[in-house]
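seq as requested:
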Amino acid sequence: MNKYELALIVSAKIEDDARTAVVEKAKEYITRAGGTVTEVEDWGKKRLAYEIQKMTEGYYYFIQFDADTTVPAAVERDVRIMDNILRFLCVRKDEA
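struct tokens:
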């Protein structure tokens, strides 16, 4: 099992409960693909480096999970089509 991190930037124009539902849905995708969510970091509302879909702010979330090597591709495939996610990035964390 490798350690991975999924970074999400969620739209700032949706309500708090809808934003929570988006993060829960991403966590559900990870567990359904066979991963185990270990931690979720909420960095809150931040200003974006550049405008994305006419938005200048977004909510940042970092989801750490343990999974096999096939899981990140499956998670990215599911997250890519989700509404209200401006950007995402899934990376493998080093064992340092």
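Strands lie at 2-11, 36-52, 55-67, 85-92.
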